[in-house]
Design goal:
Shape: elongated
Largest sheet: none
Oligomer: single chain
Number of helices: 8
Length: 177
């Protein structure tokens, strides 16, 4: 009987420790989110990086939790814009591969393509990802954007500007008729 009680006490302590650990991680995320989103003149890159680490730490520790995919998504969004687009792609992939029911899965696929296109300058991977996105989500709000970005993918800025200029002139002529 003592053995059973001892085992139950150990299990209770472990469960309490895990629960406490989870809450500590959530509290740390909330604290860092307040700091990073505060209305100051300068963006605190150090705290943003800490927030990314907190998001990933939580999601890695509790991958089945409903907050895991959103944590990865938020971390990837920050990384994409703060200088680590490779890690952002890695996290978008983690969501795409492990969270097929996540409501922002289409956004992840689009942002992965966009990251390859604009931050990593990998036009081949961007094209592959844009096409995969369009195929899987042809009616998504970003599908037209993906198609437009695909058309511009291998054009120089000068070629894009010339095409836009020609389109504007054509639209102006059309309106004046």
């Amino acid at each position: 009987m003592k053995k059973i009680i001892s085992t139950l006490v150990v299990i209770a302590v472990l469960l309490a420790a895990c629960s406490n650990s989870k809450q500590n991680k959530i509290d740390k995320i909330k604290e860092l989110e307040k700091i990073v989103s505060s209305k100051t003149d300068t963006f605190n890159i150090k705290k943003a990086n800490e927030l990314v680490e907190a998001y990933v730490d939580f999601a890695d520790a509790f991958p089945k939790d409903t907050m895991a995919a959103p944590c990865y998504y938020k971390a990837a969004s920050i990384l994409m814009n703060t200088g680590d687009p490779n890690k952002a792609v890695e996290l978008f992939d983690k969501i795409i591969n492990n969270y097929p029911d996540y409501k922002k899965l289409p956004d992840c696929m689009f942002m992965k393509a966009f990251t390859y296109d604009n931050f990593l300058q990998n036009k081949k991977k961007a094209e592959e990802c844009y096409n995969a996105f369009i195929k899987k989500y042809p009616d998504n709000e970003f599908a037209d954007d993906a198609k437009s970005l695909l058309e511009m993918l291998n054009k120089t800025p000068e070629e894009i500007a010339a095409e836009l200029d020609a389109k504007l002139k054509a639209d102006t002529v059309k309106k004046s008729e």
